[in-house]
């Protein structure tokens, strides 16, 4: 199994039959065509990456919402936690951005994202960075800040993600809401965070400046909310 960049790393897979799939991701594999509609064309994922990919219909709707509501003068999108590329691909396919910059710290997952972008025909529209997103924003991308917005789908680790009726964003791991907002807003006030559907609304509201508003949108599939996005800054959602 290879592409023009060579063979896939050992931790990267394309499972063709459920008998090959580890038990803890079998439910995700059954939904593989919702996650990537072109899965059968050779999409790559690490086993851990299955848990973090935004389903393609949701990624497409988010990309549409951002493209239609972005503040004037912002022509660059930074995907701070690119994962296996689902959101970055959707942003590139939207045709809105002069450039999409995608950051991923895991080298094997980044290989997946690059490979998957080729399958979707958008590899030449995305610039990839391997490393810590906060450091890359402060260094390699700092000159793009006046033209950029940030999209971030951070890890949702921590107690209570699946069990609590209201998810405490202060205890989200490895990055709390405070860390995410503080770091990203230093680069751009125009920020979209993709978070658990049960996220604490009061905690989200804490970071809205006085006299301003923020939009919260739930994204659903098959009649159920999968997650929400909070839109900070100058987005104009209708």
Automatic annotation (TrEMBL):
Under the heading InterPro entries, the entry gives: RNA_cap_Gua-N2-MeTrfase (IPR019012), SAM-dependent_MTases_sf (IPR029063)
Task: Give me the reactions it catalyses.
Answer: a 5'-end (N(2),N(7)-dimethyl 5'-triphosphoguanosine)-ribonucleoside in snoRNA + S-adenosyl-L-methionine = a 5'-end (N(2),N(2),N(7)-trimethyl 5'-triphosphoguanosine)-ribonucleoside in snoRNA + S-adenosyl-L-homocysteine + H(+); a 5'-end (N(7)-methyl 5'-triphosphoguanosine)-ribonucleoside in snRNA + S-adenosyl-L-methionine = a 5'-end (N(2),N(7)-dimethyl 5'-triphosphoguanosine)-ribonucleoside in snRNA + S-adenosyl-L-homocysteine + H(+); a 5'-end (N(2),N(7)-dimethyl 5'-triphosphoguanosine)-ribonucleoside in snRNA + S-adenosyl-L-methionine = a 5'-end (N(2),N(2),N(7)-trimethyl 5'-triphosphoguanosine)-ribonucleoside in snRNA + S-adenosyl-L-homocysteine + H(+); a 5'-end (N(7)-methyl 5'-triphosphoguanosine)-ribonucleoside in snoRNA + S-adenosyl-L-methionine = a 5'-end (N(2),N(7)-dimethyl 5'-triphosphoguanosine)-ribonucleoside in snoRNA + S-adenosyl-L-homocysteine + H(+)
Q: Organism's domain of life?
A: Eukaryota
List cellular component terms (GO): nucleus
Q: State whether keyword Transferase applies.
A: yes
Which stretches are transmembrane? none
- Pfam families annotated for this entry? Methyltransf_15 (PF09445)
Name one molecular function that GO assigns to this entry: RNA cap trimethylguanosine synthase activity
- According to the record, the signal peptide region is none
Which keywords does this Swiss-Prot/TrEMBL entry list? Methyltransferase, Transferase
UniProt lists the family membership as follows:
Belongs to the methyltransferase superfamily. Trimethylguanosine synthase family.
Protein name as it appears in the record? Trimethylguanosine synthase
> Taxonomic lineage per UniProt?
Eukaryota, Fungi, Dikarya, Ascomycota, Pezizomycotina
């Amino acid at each position: 199994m290879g592409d023009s960049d060579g063979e896939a790393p050992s931790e990267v897979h394309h499972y063709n039959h459920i008998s090959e799939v580890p038990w803890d991701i079998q439910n995700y594999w059954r939904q593989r065509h919702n996650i990537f509609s072109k899965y059968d064309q050779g999409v790559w994922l690490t086993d851990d990456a299955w848990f973090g990919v935004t389903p393609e219909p949701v990624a497409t709707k988010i990309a549409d919402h951002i493209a239609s509501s972005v503040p004037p003068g912002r022509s660059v999108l930074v995907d701070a936690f690119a994962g296996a590329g689902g959101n970055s691909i959707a942003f590139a396919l939207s045709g809105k951005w002069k450039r999409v910059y995608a950051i991923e710290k895991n080298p094997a997952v980044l290989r997946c994202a690059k490979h998957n972008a080729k399958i979707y025909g958008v590899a030449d529209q995305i610039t990839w960075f391997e490393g810590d997103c906060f450091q890359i924003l402060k260094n390699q991308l700092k000159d793009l800040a006046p033209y950029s917005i940030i999209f971030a789908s951070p890890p949702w680790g921590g107690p209570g993600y699946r069990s609590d009726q209201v998810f405490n964003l202060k205890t989200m791991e490895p990055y709390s809401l405070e860390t995410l907002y503080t770091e990203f807003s230093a680069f751009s006030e125009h920020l979209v965070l993709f978070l658990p559907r049960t996220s604490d609304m009061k905690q989200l509201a804490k970071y809205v400046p006085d006299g301003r508003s923020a939009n919260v949108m739930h994204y659903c599939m098959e009649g159920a909310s999968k997650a929400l996005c909070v839109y900070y800054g100058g987005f104009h959602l209708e």
